[in-house]
Specification:
By secondary structure, the chain is of the alpha/beta class. About 40% of the residues lie in helices and about 15% in strands. The two termini are about 30 Å apart. Bound molecules: nicotinamide-adenine-dinucleotide and zinc ion. Nicotinamide-adenine-dinucleotide (NAD) binds next to loops.
Length: about 280
């Protein structure tokens, strides 16, 4: 039998080889990350109602969608449930060990003169946990590890380190006392951009973004590696596509590039990064 001219992995092999060339030509690495980068660490993405409800069965039982709970109104209407959802996630992200792909990204960056900057819509703090420099991360939608007042009574944003959430997995309700604002006593909420959210205090993310802009102007030939960014909330995709730089898009289901130079890799983050490391070692 003649050899199969299109073995199943040929597309990925060629894409990995192209990605390795792009990394070799770069002087810096911009990492764009969405929820999918955490899947290989065991974290859920919230893809569609079913993906979300698989992760939160008590919310499925009540028919509550992601956009309904991730909403400032839910802190008014159902404070123990809203805190149950975010408290559970806070505990989950604290307990999660970032997969090896994060270390591979750090090693790629260490070989480049300008190192890496991270732009992520994730609120989970996994890049900091993986040892990335906190001054080189934009958490564009905020961070679950930071808090603000629900009113808000001031511009204060502070660490969530003191919050030790007790959440009943059967009901998704957080046990009292719910965290209170040290300034005015009102309920506190995560410093995260939610749906229909005019109360989010964005100063922390804006300061991060200003640091990113300063770095970006110093860099001449960045390569962008985008991992696990979905299409529904395209903040990460948009940033990655508008850098006038080659883009390596890693996504098992939606790897196609809109336009511009670069390559899509139809694989999970961990597998793609392991293969990229191998290709760069050749
Ligand atoms: N961990 C978090 O912080 C977290 C988790 C869920 C949602 N969110 C928030 O919800 C919104 C969701 O948008 P989003 O685009 O980040 O996520 P999304 O759930 O819309 O999309 C996830 C993407 O990851 C891809 N994916 C699945 N498995 C993967 C893997 N193993 N490796 C690489 N990619 C994989 C999927 O194909 C999909 O395109 C964002 O605003 C984000 O802030 C955050
Ligand atoms: Zn307050």
């Amino acid at each position: 039998m003649p050899p199969d001219p299109h073995p199943p992995d040929a597309g990925i092999d060629a894409a990995i080889a192209r990605a390795a060339e792009l990394v070799r030509d770069a002087d810096a690495l911009l990492i764009g990350a969405g929820a999918g980068i955490g899947v290989d660490s065991g974290l859920p993405d919230f893809r569609g109602d079913h993906g979300f409800w698989r992760a939160y069965p008590p919310l499925a039982a009540r028919g509550i969608r992601f956009a309904e709970i991730a909403n400032p109104h839910s802190f008014e209407a159902h404070p123990a449930l809203a805190w149950g959802f975010y408290g559970h996630r806070l505990a989950l992200y604290r307990a999660t060990v970032p997969h090896e792909g994060f270390a591979i990204l750090r090693a790629l960056a260490a070989a480049l003169p300008h190192g890496a900057f991270v732009f992520t819509s994730n609120v989970d703090g996994q890049f900091q946990r993986a040892g990335f420099d906190a001054d080189r991360i934009v958490e564009y939608h905020g961070s679950i590890h930071h808090l603000q007042c629900t009113r808000p009574c001031s511009d204060a944003i502070w660490s969530a380190a003191e919050v030790a959430p007790q959440v009943d997995p059967a009901t998704c309700l957080m046990a009292p006392p719910l965290p209170a604002c040290p300034h005015c006593g009102a309920l506190v909420r995560p410093n995260i951009l939610m749906f229909n959210d005019s109360d989010w205090l964005e100063a922390r993310s804006e300061a991060q973004y200003a640091r990113f802009r300063a770095w970006r102007t110093r860099v001449q030939r960045p390569v962008v590696i985008e991992l696990g960014a979905g299409t529904d909330i395209p903040s990460v995709r948009r940033l990655c596509e508008t850098q006038h730089a080659p883009l390596i898009r890693i996504n098992p289901r939606a790897p196609a590039l809109a336009s511009g130079p670069g390559v899509g890799i139809a694989a999970g983050a961990l597998e793609a990064l392991r293969r990229l490391r191998e290709a760069l070692a050749d």
